[in-house]
Amino acid sequence: MSREGELSYTEAIQRAEASITRFPLIPVRGIPLMNYIAENWDSIWAFRPDPSDLLIATYPKAGTTWTQEIVDLLLHNGDAEICKRAPTPVRSPFLEICSPPPIPSGLDLLKEMDPPRVIKTHLPFQLVPPAFWENKCKAIYVARNAKDNLVSYYHFDCMNLTQPEPGPWGGYIHKFMRGELAWGSWYDHVKGYWAEKEKRNILYIFYEDMKENPRREVERIMRYLDLSLPDEIISKIVELTSFKNMKDNPMANYSCVPAPVFDQSISPFMRKGEVGDWTNHFTPEQSKMFDEDYEKQMKDVKIPFRTLI
Fold first, then answer.
1. For residue 69, which of 251, 226, 235 has the smallest C-alpha distance?
2. CATH code at 76?
3. Does 307 map to a domain?
């Protein structure tokens, strides 16, 4: 999208500031979603991607923006300037997001783009429009360990003034365990894609693996996309997608979203990006309680999560 497209997106958010509020959650097939998404659900469910489109799916705050940037750079041969053509949500639209006018919805942005498109979603597997699987689209799923994901989501809900008030940390832990946050249960989310990964040819990757060895995971994504880039380009992409470089990149750090929507004085959109930060938030009692509940909720599946690396 052109510079004009980027400006129109940012200006649309600014023009809608007066109508920005913490929107209520409404269940869609049992999954709590922001009311604007719920009200437009039929259009979202009916979306028909091109077979060449790529879906990047995550539970919120699990490495979505990081993966979007890696994919964009891979598709553009590591060209950093091309990848600064517009902010992340314009380059890689958020499928289900809907906001007050004149902010364009994810579907509005996708209509303006020619395939192949890179499409972001936080929808659990069962709510992904079925045409993605009918058309055999490729999909990358990024999963992050529950404790770090919870911490990151808590800070995000504090600064994202469109999602319900998170309340105190101790209560938020229980909301997370009960799946009462936007986009529902982390447990069901990670298990849903895990169960379908072979049948649907989903590349299932872990945030912790990306932090431990980013080059290895960038190469995995490259191969999945049927690309072959020289070593020096891979090295460049790894460097460009380091946490520090992305935090400093205005096209990736969501600084295009004004403070009445994302108040980055409360918490930056890109906060720490670490594995194990949960140890700074959970008390020993909270950790024990969470671990016991985790064992119950995950007893039917063996997904190799790591809470430390």
1. 251
2. 3.40.50.300
3. no
